[in-house]
TrEMBL record, chain A:
Name the record gives this protein: D-2-hydroxyglutarate dehydrogenase, mitochondrial
PANTHER family: D-2-HYDROXYGLUTARATE DEHYDROGENASE, MITOCHONDRIAL
Keywords: FAD, Flavoprotein, Metal-binding, Mitochondrion, Oxidoreductase, Transit peptide, Zinc
GO cellular component annotations of the record: mitochondrion
Protein's GO biological process: lactate metabolic process; malate metabolic process
Naturally occurring in which organism (per UniProt): Cyberlindnera jadinii (strain ATCC 18201 / CBS 1600 / BCRC 20928 / JCM 3617 / NBRC 0987 / NRRL Y-1542)
From TrEMBL, chain B:
UniProt similarity note: Belongs to the ETF beta-subunit/FixA family.
GO cellular component: mitochondrial matrix
Pfam families assigned: ETF
Protein name, entry field: Probable electron transfer flavoprotein subunit beta
Listed transmembrane segments: none
Entry's Gene Ontology BP terms: amino acid catabolic process; fatty acid beta-oxidation using acyl-CoA dehydrogenase
Protein's organism: Cyberlindnera jadinii (strain ATCC 18201 / CBS 1600 / BCRC 20928 / JCM 3617 / NBRC 0987 / NRRL Y-1542) (Torula yeast)
Length: 529, 255
């Protein structure tokens, strides 16, 4: 008889990684959506692109004595002054904005953040809080010479209560790291984004990010239980130990969720995490019209109900861009005007799959959908998600992208893409050759939340394109009673357009709050409102 | 090629390769409850290759038959294979019993004879026990030629050319039928099973048999003594200078 000791080192674990390495096309499917720079050209300074925006002379300029002070409270390597190193903090992910900051500070503790802000406030030094720098509206990079306050070194997970699912962590923890920690304990972070490998959880709260699973778990306004915040004057205000139910006083944390670093700097957060579904299934469908997308959505809601965790739609044009970018085999054989990605998640995978299959078969027989596939394993599941998650990169890889993230009534959702494409074509800006700045206007988004991403992929940033799109897009959205920013926020790009969505009394109240908590306006200037 | 091809593709259901397997509490095997199972990636490649041969040589292929030995759930991987283009299938229900490579090969021999197969394409190994035995043993039992670790398969006239990746290059072997081919990763990239084909697959034949339908002695020849995690890697240390580094390496007799 042959006796054999089987060690796991020689078994499937190792093989799995071998497979991923051995097959380039599959390996390509796994690369995370971290920031990607095309190092071809330098980004124009924001100050040059927008000459109308002037540096506010209220702010002091950085002096050697300031540097000396920061050196006295922070370790040497927490100060970044080298021009090349600063580029990472000065430029945004889309390579559309570039600030001229001479200093980035990377504190490790809440006390250090407090000391920095107290000093900056007394000296009138403007400060830009920055997380993973994956924002899409130029909100996390300086416009002029503001000091960048990077939270990247505040990256400690503080605690997870495995009974209640309450998770506490520093704001600079990367979303994917937080989610992996939660996964090991059977929980899930109630938010998922394409940029999960780079973005910070604090940044997602500061910008009230929406993401792919809002349909299932709701917005951060519901799941964040408490925040630890440093105000502009250095005062630390913390509600991080709050429990799920607390009906005493104003709910102050809500002020900071989505405030984009204009009222205070979030240094820690407590968030209620739901149990992690044990099984995920993903289907990828082709349909013939936007009406069919809506029909499929209604049907999915009624037939998949409690297990439906994502319903994403994509138009043909954005998938064509993704095909050029990803270069792997496309899941569906024929082309369709619209594609849908459906994810279900639940506690019983077989039961879920049965439901999903029954739903798809009936949708197919009733000719609501034209074609579709279901992921047969985890590799295919990740592969299918990739066709949705890689769209942002695919749109910007050829030069740049104008991004509009709007919410609209479902019936009007796709109308905006048609309108934008028509306007750009008529203006002679959109075409197949290098002569035209615009490659295409494409649409995708979270149907479940009435959220459309209109992306205008360009070969180069040109004022004429921006003029054709703005305020046209905002006016169009406003006329349908939509929001000009569903989840990306206002930042620098949309500062002047808040009036299309918010009323004058609302804006006034916001300005009063800003005046009250940051009277010197040192936090994230030139942006938001 | 004058003879028509009757292709047989044996497939296995294993723990999904993207998941990290966990060792059971008793340390006797891998934890299987509540874990996602999928088709063995090498088997998926074998099915894909069979379908590609059929698509490229329509008149040449009589049929593609897939077979799986495993629990009832193994029918899922058969249905997926049918949806991708196989014509018929056999499920041999083994319940929870582990069937060793030699016995798998003996069963497959009988399946091949019954289906009058003359080309068998199978994964070079399954990722659960990494034996890499079945194809070779089956070739021995049938006394057929074998071309293992295929990275490319071409049919020219009445011969099959198989390219294999070997140290320092490629090796191409050729053979007449009958033939056994085991698949390597680079052979192809498996397709997705489309919804219409999934529905059609439900109408394709699925023969259901049991282990006792085969005249094979299933008693185990191998005994698993222990399954254990690889030892955790020890933390490294930081050295202050090159001299210190060299000294440390010398201490460890690394240089």
């Amino acid at each position: 008889m042959l006796r054999q000791i089987i060690k796991r080192g020689s078994s499937s674990v190792v093989l799995s990684s071998r497979i991923a390495r051995a097959v380039p096309s599959r390996a390509a499917l796994f690369h995370s959506s971290s920031t990607q720079y095309s190092a071809s050209k330098t980004v124009k300074l924001t100050a040059e692109s927008y000459p109308n925006v002037k540096r506010d002379e209220r702010y002091a300029t950085l002096e050697q004595s300031d540097i000396d002070y920061f050196k006295s409270i922070l370790p040497e390597n927490a100060l970044i002054q080298d021009q090349d190193d600063l580029l990472f903090y000065n430029e945004d992910w889309m390579r559309k904005y570039r600030g001229q900051s001479k200093l980035t500070l990377k504190p490790k503790t809440t006390e250090q953040v407090s000391q920095i802000l107290k000093y900056a406030n007394e000296r009138n030094l403007a400060v830009v809080p920055q997380g993973g720098n994956t924002g899409l509206v130029g909100g996390s990079v300086p416009v002029f010479d503001e000091i960048v306050l990077s939270l990247a070194n505040m990256n400690k997970i503080r605690s997870l209560d495995t009974t209640s699912g309450i998770f506490k962590a520093d704001s600079g923890v990367v979303l994917e790291v937080a989610d992996q920690h939660l996964a090991e304990n059977g929980y899930i972070f109630p938010l998922d984004l394409g940029a999960k490998g780079s973005c910070h959880i604090g940044g997602t709260v500061a910008t009230n990010a929406g993401g792919l699973r809002l349909l299932r778990y709701g917005s951060l306004h519901g799941s964040v239980l408490g925040l630890e915040v440093v105000l502009a004057n250095g005062k630390i205000v913390s509600s991080i130990d709050a429990l799920r139910k607390d009906n005493t006083g104003y709910d102050l944390k809500q002020l900071f969720i989505g405030s984009e670093g204009t009222l205070g700097v979030i240094t820690g957060l407590s968030i209620l995490c739901p149990p992690r579904p044990k099984n995920f299934n993903v289907a990828f469908l082709g349909v013939e019209s936007y009406e069919a997308v809506m029909k499929t959505f209604v049907k999915a809601k009624s037939e998949l109900g409690e297990i439906l965790s994502a319903f994403e739609f994509m138009d043909e044009s954005c998938q064509e861009l993704a095909k050029k970018h990803l270069k792997t085999a496309y899941p569906l054989e024929e082309q369709h005007p619209f594609y849908i990605l459906i994810e279900t998640s639940g506690s019983n995978g077989e039961h879920d799959l049965e439901k999903l299959e029954a739903f798809l078969e009936s949708a197919f027989e009733n000719e609501v959908i034209q074609d579709g596939v279901i992921a047969q394993d985890e590799t295919q599941l990740k592969g299918l998600w990739n066709w949705r998650e890689q769209i942002p990169e695919a749109c910007q890889i050829n030069g740049g992208v104008y991004k509009y993230d709007v919410s609209l009534p479902l019936s009007d959702l796709y109308g905006l893409v048609d309108a934008a494409r028509e306007r750009l074509t008529q203006a002679g800006l959109l075409g197949d050759t290098e002569d035209f700045p615009v490659i295409d206007a494409v649409g995708y988004g979270h149907v479940g939340d009435g959220n459309l991403h209109l992306n205008v992929a360009v070969r180069r940033y040109e004022k004429s394109v921006e003029k054709a799109l703005e305020p046209f897009v905002y006016e169009w959205v406003s006329s349908k009673k939509g929001s000009i920013s569903a989840e990306h926020g206002l930042g620098f790009q949309k500062k002047n357009y808040i009036g299309y969505t918010k009323s004058q009394p609302e804006i006034e109240m916001m300005k009063q709050l800003k005046q009250l908590y940051d009277p010197n306006a040192i936090l994230n200037p030139y942006k938001y409102i | 090629m004058s003879t028509k091809l009757n292709i047989l593709v044996p497939v296995k259901r294993v723990i999904d390769f993207a998941l990290k397997p966990r060792i059971n509490k008793a340390g006797t095997g891998i934890e299987k409850t509540g874990v996602k199972f999928s088709i063995n990636p090498f088997c998926d490649i074998a099915v894909e290759e069979a379908v590609r041969i059929k698509e490229a040589h329509k008149s040449l292929v009589n049929k593609i038959h897939v077979v799986s030995i495993g629990p009832t759930k193994a029918q899922d991987v058969l249905r997926q294979s049918l949806a991708k283009g196989a014509d018929s299938s056999t499920h041999i229900d083994s319940g929870e019993q582990e069937v060793e490579p030699l016995n798998v090969a003996k069963i497959l021999k009988q399946v091949a004879e019954k289906n009058e197969s003359n080309l068998i394409i199978l994964g070079k190994q399954s990722i659960d026990d990494d034996s890499n035995n079945t194809g070779q043993m089956l070739a021995g039992l049938l006394n057929w030629p074998q071309a293992t670790n295929a990275a490319k398969v071409e049919i020219k006239d009445d011969e099959v050319y198989v390219t294999r990746e070997i140290d320092g290059g490629e090796e191409t072997v050729k053979s007449k039928l009958p033939l056994i081919i085991t698949t390597d990763l680079r052979l192809n990239e498996p397709r997705f099973a489309s919804l219409p084909n999934m529905m059609k697959a439900k109408k394709k034949p699925l023969e259901k048999l049991k282990l006792k339908d085969f005249d094979v002695d299933l008693s185990a020849r191998l005994e698993v003594l222990k399954v254990e995690e690889p030892a955790a890697r020890e933390a490294g240390i930081k050295v202050g200078s090159v001299d210190e580094l060299v000294a440390k390496l010398k201490d460890l007799k690394a240089i």
